[in-house]
Design a protein that fits this description.
The chain is α+β, with helices and mostly antiparallel strands and 268 residues long. It is built from six helices and nine strands; from the N terminus they run H-H-H-H-H-E-E-E-E-E-E-E-E-E-H. Strand 1 and strand 2 form a beta hairpin. Helix 2 runs antiparallel to helix 3 and helix 4 packs antiparallel against helix 5.
Length: 268
Amino acid sequence: MRVYGEAYLFINFWMDFLSLLLAACLRGARFHGPRAAAGALLGAVYAVFARQNNGLSMSIPVFLFSILLLCWISFGRNGVFFFPYVGASMLLLGGFSDALLRRGVSSAVIMLTAGLGVFGLCRMLRIRNLSAESAWVLRIRYREKQASLPVLRDSGNLLTDSFTGQPVIVVPESAVSPLLPDGVSTHDLATLPPGWRLLPIRTVSGSGLLMCFRPDSVELVRDRQCQTIDAFIALADFHEKTALVPERLFQGFGEMRLRKEVIFHAGN
């Protein structure tokens, strides 16, 4: 196998750069392109030097130290935490490029294929991380007790309290059972506690009444952000563990980020 020095240098530079990018994506950290390029260039120069000299430069301690130095250049003082990710990525991409080189695949094709693969994987990881970060949680406090449950943004929930006009959040009885007074059951309206009220509803399956109460506080929580909202809580008997939160309660809270989310309707 004949590999020209320039091609070998470029391939190693590109693979080291992709390794740093992949490591940053795996850790969910910020990727600084210029610093990563400087680290990748150092790694490529080392690879060329190691190929020409089969002595100390090829030893495992020197190789590991070069990875650590590359991490330090690319990620600063926290580079040591990226060491296993960068090392694993380099071994993966290095083996991939070597295998294709031995089969006579051109350097351009190798670099393009590896780049598309890493960029695609990073894109998937970013979408997953954004999805995790954007998950809403409803936190309800009532009589010194607290319950939290995931949120479903429901544009079809137009329920309001007839006395105050405030929106009503529908939650499954089973998800907030620790908050409820003893003996309360949605199957028996006679168990309605003092101070609670019955909320008339109409759905595609017919009309009915829901037990409704005003909690001590209701909060929407997401990505270390928290906002208190004014809303009533209505109990429903359904198996899902999510709260049906009216869409209007999200207005004014992180609108720039909310535009990227999918809005669900309870009937979908």
